Amino acid sequence: MTDIVDQQTRSRMMSGIKGKNTKPELALRRALHSRGFRFRLHSGKVHGRPDLALPKHRAVVFVHGCFWHRHEGCRYATVPATRPEFWRAKFEANAARDSAVRTRLLEDGWRVATVWECALRKPEQVEASTESLSIWLRTEELQIEIGDNSARRS
């Protein structure tokens, strides 16, 4: 199957995809800040440069895009029809890196939260996700995963 746009256009489109300060990340940051939480952004002092680092709570937060980070069972985690082998390899590498970063952070004594993009699409979802994250930050639990109105703790 061939792409519907030329290579130059596709390159321009892909270069517009941001890795920092995305809409879901900004929404979560605003909501957490309004609840009194203070954090560092993309801290180079913390392994993996998490989206948010909350040293007071010894916690980090990653805001993951469902497509790029392969949110299991999510309707946004599709595989493009063009060059599926390339995309599978890319997604597997992303997932392996995410897992390695999470493991290292836990070994270093950090608690890790993953908030999926699908849980931050609507204002009411942002509110629910922020509430789950706020509760988790005040506990001693090591991990939480928040996606599409569900939160899994461990």
Write the layout of secondary structure elements.
Elements: H1 7-15, H2 23-34, E1 40-41, E2 52-54, E3 59-64, H3 66-69, H4 84-107, E4 111-116, H5 123-137, E5 143-147, E6 150-153
Parallel strand pairs: 3-4, 4-5
Antiparallel strand pairs: 1-2, 2-3, 5-6
Helix pairs in contact: 2-5
What would you call the structural class? Answer: alpha/beta
Order of helices and strands: HHEEEHHEHEE
CATH third-level topology: Endonuclease, Chain A
User: What would you say the CATH architecture is?
Assistant: 3-Layer(aba) Sandwich
Helix content: 40-55%
Low-confidence stretches: none
Give an overview in words.
The chain has 154 residues and is α/β, with parallel strands linked by helices. The protein has a single domain (18-153), classed as 3-Layer(aba) Sandwich (Endonuclease, Chain A), CATH 3.40.960. Helices cover 42% and strands 17% of the residues. It is built from 5 helices and 6 strands, in the order H-H-E-E-E-H-H-E-H-E-E. A 6-stranded mixed beta sheet has the order 1-2-3-4-5-6, sandwiched between helices. A hairpin with a 2-residue loop joins strand 5 (143-147) and strand 6 (150-153). Helix 2 (23-34) packs across helix 5. The protein is globular, with a radius of gyration of 16 Å. The termini are far apart.
